[in-house]
């Protein structure tokens, strides 16, 4: 195994300590193990058949899952955190945040979180909607004056904030790399990164500059008709938030971080800024050697994939949203949630015709991916709709067939990093504990192309076996 230092490939042993050798594998073994990645995951429906675990047993089993993940992917560094009922019960770093300088990963290591930026932006959107600053059903051209009139089949069409948040606005995603230029961008493990705009090196100083990347391109579908996952759509959504609030997106984002107590979360829009505990990021080169990730800008996609964070901050964020979801008006002994329960239900409601890449039963809501345990059940009643005038949700009753058996969260992947945030709620009604009730799992890896969705579900299922029906943790 070799590591790229500058432009020079060094033998792996010379680039790091001997003790890290077990984290990497010979190229042949690495390639063979990738075909067996499914062994890291488990079926959501098998959990109830297994015995109740102690917390320590759950941690030991989860460590084995992460070690298997390291061996099968060769990821230099991985950070993990798990909470039960709002309390962090396991947090650990594996491997190295900086291979060349032998800096170890910890729960405070700050990495690119890629598309986990979308759930954070959706919470910002929801808060501004609750405050009646923005109307998610209004034509965004009322907020973004520089957005040109769009047409579909010769007819004028309008785009709403809700359509942008659910990827149904018809806005394109990254441009694919042309075949004749692929050698310029190096090798890629999957088609996911065969897009030229992943590798933009130009700095975009404003959201308006970022929107200029795609604002003159035609729509790829009629707004509201089809699901097309797009990070550019979230850039346009951030422009909408700017226009509605009168504040630039970085100000809105950092105000949100402050409100939520996220002290290790940043926008990746200033490469010269000193960020303590920031990780290096890595990719696989030819012959599977680990090398430094190429320089790539995130300033053009701040709202959709341009944030940095740690597993500790993201665990806190997940629990804040889970608490808001479970906290209702009958809980006078509990402090109010950051969002109303009905608002989180709106964010998490699966939209018909949407999908997620890592699970066949998954659907997309407003910035959140949802996976019901029973693919025939729905997370929230489809009759849930927004009321523009009252800024409320007409029907707020949960219709979860098994309230303790659905997953909600988001996965992410960008140049040099992979990420996942997963929430597995448990029933508050059957529990004697106050919200948040359930499991939150966060995994960050400083290697591109690591599939983490099923791994997080696996770990959530393991810790779910620590929680009996009364909500108490052994």
TrEMBL record:
One of its GO terms (biological process) is proteolysis. GO terms for cellular component: mitochondrion. This is Beta-lactamase-related domain-containing protein. It comes from the Eukaryota. Residues 64-449 form the Beta-lactamase-related domain. SUPFAM superfamilies: beta-lactamase/transpeptidase-like. GO terms for molecular function: peptidase activity. InterPro entries: Beta-lactam-related, Beta-lactam/transpept-like, Mito_Ser_Protease_LACTB. It comes from Paralvinella palmiformis.
């Amino acid at each position: 195994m070799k590591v790229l230092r500058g432009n020079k490939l060094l033998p792996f042993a010379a680039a790091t300590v001997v003790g890290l050798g077990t984290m990497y594998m010979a190229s042949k073994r690495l390639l063979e193990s990738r075909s067996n990645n499914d062994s890291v995951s488990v079926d959501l429906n098998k959990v109830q058949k297994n015995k109740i675990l102690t917390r320590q047993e759950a941690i030991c089993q989860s460590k084995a899952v992460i070690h298997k993940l390291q061996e099968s992917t060769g990821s230099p560094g991985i950070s993990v955190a798990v909470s039960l009922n709002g309390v962090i019960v396991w947090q650990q770093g594996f491997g190295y945040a900086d291979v060349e300088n032998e800096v170890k990963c910890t729960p405070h290591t700050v990495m690119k979180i890629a598309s986990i930026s979308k759930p954070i932006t959706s919470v910002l959107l929801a808060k501004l909607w609750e405050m009646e600053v923005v109307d998610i059903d209004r034509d965004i051209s009322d907020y973004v004056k520089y957005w040109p009139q769009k047409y579909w089949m010769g007819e004028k069409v309008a785009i709403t904030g809700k359509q942008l948040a659910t990827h149904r606005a018809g806005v394109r995603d990254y441009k694919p790399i042309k075949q004749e230029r692929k050698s310029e961008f190096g090798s890629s493990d999957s088609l996911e990164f065969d897009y030229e705009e992943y590798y933009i090196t130009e700095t975009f100083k404003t959201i308006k500059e970022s929107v200029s990347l795609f604002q003159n391109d035609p729509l790829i579908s009629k707004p509201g008709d089809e699901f097309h996952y797009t990070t550019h759509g979230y850039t346009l959504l951030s422009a909408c938030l700017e226009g509605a609030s009168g504040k630039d997106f970085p100000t809105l984002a950092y105000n949100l971080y402050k409100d939520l107590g996220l002290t290790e979360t940043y926008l990746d829009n200033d490469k010269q800024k000193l960020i303590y505990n920031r990780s290096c990021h890595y990719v696989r080169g030819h012959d599977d050697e680990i090398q430094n990730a190429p320089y790539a800008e995130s300033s053009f996609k701040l709202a959709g994939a341009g944030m940095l964070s740690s597993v500790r901050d993201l665990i806190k964020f997940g629990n804040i949203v889970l608490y808001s979801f479970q906290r209702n008006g009958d809980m006078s002994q509990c402090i109010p949630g950051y969002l109303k329960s009905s608002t989180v239900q709106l964010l998490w409601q699966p939209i018909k015709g949407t999908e997620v890449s890592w699970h066949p039963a998954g659907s997309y809501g407003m910035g959140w991916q949802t996976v019901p345990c029973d693919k025939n059940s729905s997370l929230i009643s489809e009759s849930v709709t927004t009321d523009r005038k009252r800024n409320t949700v007409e029907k707020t009753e949960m219709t979860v067939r098994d309230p303790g058996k659905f997953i909600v969260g988001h996965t992410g992947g960008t140049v040099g990093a992979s990420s996942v945030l997963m929430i597995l709620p448990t029933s508050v009604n059957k529990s004697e504990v106050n919200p948040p009730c359930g499991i939150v799992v966060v995994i960050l890896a400083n290697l591109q192309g690591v599939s983490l969705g099923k791994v997080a579900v696996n770990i959530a299922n393991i810790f779910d076996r620590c929680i009996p029906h009364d909500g108490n943790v052994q």
